[in-house]
Protein: Amidohydrolase 2
Organism: Denitrovibrio acetiphilus
Amino acid sequence: MKIIDSEIHILHPEACKASFAKYSEEPVVQAVHMHKDFDAVRDMMSFKALDSSMRKNNIANGLLMGLSWLDPGIQRENNDYIKELVKADRRFKGLYIPNLSDIKQAAKEIEQLDESTFIGIELLPTWQGVHINDAELQPVVDAVTARDMFMMVHTHHMTQTATGDTPSRFFSFTAANPDLKIIAQHMGGLVCLYAEIPHIKEMLKNVTYITSVSSTMRFVEFAAEICNSNIVFGTDFPFNHCHDQSTQIRYIQNSGMSDAAKENILYKTAERLFGFGASV
């Protein structure tokens, strides 16, 4: 069965060094470079490692993105690297991460994105110093909507934070932007489960959920009973709990979900939404 990974993060080579931006207050440095697993994951952060993992796991295509940096120069370098990889390898499509220190400039950059490389943007609100439902982000939202692109949004679970990228903020954001094509990381903090309620389902009809919940994959099975046609497989590789793409694939393949649900999640929905057509 074909597989598409709709959430792969990759840093430009300079940023993979342990000493990169060492004395900065960059959230990426705090979360990645200073993480107890950094030594274990460092060798998986290269494109060579990604390519090897995809071939090993029969992953045909991937949606590539960097991480969000406060420094505009570092963010530009990360985005440029994503652009370089996507242009060189047709297995991939990219997501652009705008620097939100200047909202008008961020909106302008989105307006000028090359859609043959970038199919949308990604926001990691807490790391970028904002909340997803902040009114100040509207020019960015409008720019994405006007171009009919996707916006991937990082969302925590309710057990992780009461002040950061909360499911409640995500829900209010989706309700306020019915014309925006939203991709929700980490199963949208399980907002997807509320699609069992008819009027909530209508409010969430523009949202696609990513299976990047590597330590709690059972949640994907719960959600698949409600909305398997708008769930796409994504690993958050290499920064997931298992630091591989294999664990989540095996879970879905061995789960009790129907074959049709597995096909939708592993490749069919992503193929349709993101325009992937290449094979391994």
Summary: The chain has a mean pLDDT of 94. Residues 72-88 form the longest helix (17 residues). The chain has one domain: 3-273.
